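User: Some background: our group keeps a shared notebook of sequences we're curious about, and every so often someone picks one and asks for a predicted structure to add to the entry. Today it's my turn. The entry only has the sequence so far, pasted here. Could you supply the structure so I can complete it?
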Amino acid sequence: MQMHLLGSSLLLVGAYLLSYCFVSGQQGRDPCSSYTVIKDAWRSVSNGFQGYCDQPGSKGAQPQYNKWFRFMGPGGTIMPESCPTPKGDVCGTHVAFWINGKHPTLADGVVTRPVCGAWSGQCCHTSTYTAPAAKIKMCPGGFYVYYLRQIKGCDGAYCTVNPCEISNGNCSHFCNSTESEGVGTVCSCPPGKVLSGSDMKTCVFQCSENNGGCSHGCKTVKDLPSVCYCPTGSGLVLTPNKTTCVEPCDINNGNCSHMCKNMEDGRAVCSCPSWLPLASDGRTCDQTFSTAHRCGCSIHVQTSGTKKGSILFELPTLLYGYQVLWAEDVNGTFKVLYRYPDFNTKLVRRQLSKEDANICVNILQKCPFDCERMAKAVIDDGLSTVLPVRGSSGSKSIPLGQIMCESLISPLHPGKHPVVFFDPGPKCGRPASTHFLEDVLCCGLLRIPGLLETYVWNKKCDGQVSIKDLIAG
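Assistant: Of course. Here's the predicted structure to add to the notebook entry:
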């Protein structure tokens, strides 16, 4: 019994393999890569009777049938799916053979379809002129191959047609035949739509496919190409390619010659460094006119009189711009009055001669005053002002007096004043300095054998410095 079942199974497997070889072509190869090309222009449904017949030895016949064929050339690339005409006498023959069914899709693989012969008023002549069923497969290139057998009787032949003549080539809109290349059809779309899907036959609105290529918003306009846009209130604008939204300053720096600021309404507003005015075009900084001067400003220890000693604290560089005083620090350029509203009310002392050239009168008049006022604006109430200091152990608050004392590299005799030092620059006179505080800076040397040696700020200036002073600040 088991031997009988095994023998039956082997017979079934053998029958399947024979069927596969028959369907797939010679030696079991894929028919999409193993076929015979037919390029007969006379097979077109638009041709009348010309005496052709698909029987070996007849006019126009193939030497051999019962194999896979592919139609190419101007006669057409696929067989018709409907009756060309019941009376026949088309396709260069009397009996016109056509496929009575639909062509398969790529996913269908190999299918079998009946073949009908149109002749003598019948679309499917059943008496003398018949042809066996055909096997059809759609190939990845978009073309079809047919397993065709020899027909019965002459004159009869297989017809071909332009693929766009069958269901518009399955295109949703326009079908363009590429039959001369044997590919089949190429679908196209009206303005405002694009091809979609793996078969590239269905037209959809451009915004439905990859958002119309837009980075943000896509707007569909009937019968017109889609339009990209940037969201309202985003402050973004379209780039010249009309598809990508960016901030206005990202496009050629907003057409500004120097600084550009992005606005919420999508505008780019240009500005200039403090020492250059903005030209009438609103975009260009006028570099032909500048009244800018710099004044180096820092706090030093007093040596004798108001001579420059060791640096204690760095202040921003002052800039004399077109109309207003600016300062410059690590965070950029800022208007002094914006950061220090009471800047103009600070105590001013001056000690500077006016022996310099007229071109530097402006900076020589302002530099000592503004530098001293800046020092007082920063320090405010004097050496007890607590400032944040970031070190290796994190940020901590230390009085300015202690910061200055720790910056010394040599002993300081008690009673010395901090002085503000200003340098107008090499073209505008010599450096100068002045006292700017009533307080004196008292730094004492604290030694703890085997532990530390540092200068400590002694508020009382009594010459006695202890570890308590260091801790108390």
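Suggested note for the entry: The CA atoms of residues 102 and 116 lie 13 Å apart. The first helix runs from residue 2 to 24.
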